Amino acid sequence: MFSFLEDTSKTVQYILLWLAFAIILTIVFYSIVALPVWMILIDSVMHALIFGLLGLLLWNVVKYGNFHALTVYQRMVNHVALAFLSIAIWLSGGYGLFLLIFGADSASQFIPFLPIRGFIGLLVYLLIVQHFRFLLNDLDSNVITSDLLQVVETEKQKTQNTEVLERIAVKSGAKIHVVLVTDIFFLQADGDYVQIFTVQGKYLKEQTMKFFEEHLPENQFVRVHRSVIVNVEMISRIELYEKQNQLLTLKNGQQIKTSSSGYKALRMALNL
Asked: Can you tell me the distance from the alpha carbon of 70 to that of 52, in angstroms, rounded to the nearest whole number?
């Protein structure tokens, strides 16, 4: 869940980072707040603890928020709202804890300096989000290198000696239709059959999805879902659908939802 804390050393580094932040806060407010240094230190530690916990939540938001699929304006609005919410939780949580422990008289000493603390919180938020983005780029590169490329290479090796289909013969009653692969929009599993959606119409073929996945041109056809294989040349638009899924709009107007692994394979095929 928190892959950036995957070992003990990184966990210790994360804790030390927020302890350093608490010390910096103490130094900043020691000269401007009329309270004993030990009381300011406790306040700083509480604020660092809250921001540290928020950092864990922010990691999941940045990782699973799929911000790259949004427009620039949508990303900006989301980041502004997320920053405002994070800082508001940080300020109110820290002030509330200090108020409960030391009372209203001591807590009121910090009220005039809330704008300063809010500005500090904004800077810290920006640093955290930027750091998490760098970590995600590294994780994505590792995943692609160790998993996706290995899977693709394995599939290439399997299909090196496999005949690549250029046309598909489909029997319909007394007629036999010859469907060119280039005319296919997508293929969809239908029990023991596969429905083939083409420029000319829809055909039903007694075959498995695995067969088509192995015999169709691999750079042109991608299995974007367990039950759907799409001709990437027939895709006209890709847009965000729900949290981590994408919605494909084909040139014939039909829409197909991708799975998470299917979208990764599609990105590989499209060099995204």
From this structure: 27
The residue count for the chain: 272
Separation CA 154–CA 255 (nearest Å): 30
> 173: burial class by Cβ within 10 Å (0-12, 13-18, 19+)?
exposed
| pLDDT tier at 144, thresholds 50, 70, 90 | very low
Return the structure tokens found at 9.
């050393």
The more confidently predicted of residues 176 and 155 is: 176
Containing 247, the helix (H) or strand (E) segment is strand 245-250
Whole-model pTM above 0.85?
A: no
* Pairwise CA distance, residues 217 & 48, whole Å: 54
Question: In the chain, what are the domains?
Answer: 3-155 (no CATH), 167-270 (2.40.50.1020)
- Determine the Cα–Cα distance for residues 40 and 110; give it in Å rounded to an integer: 10
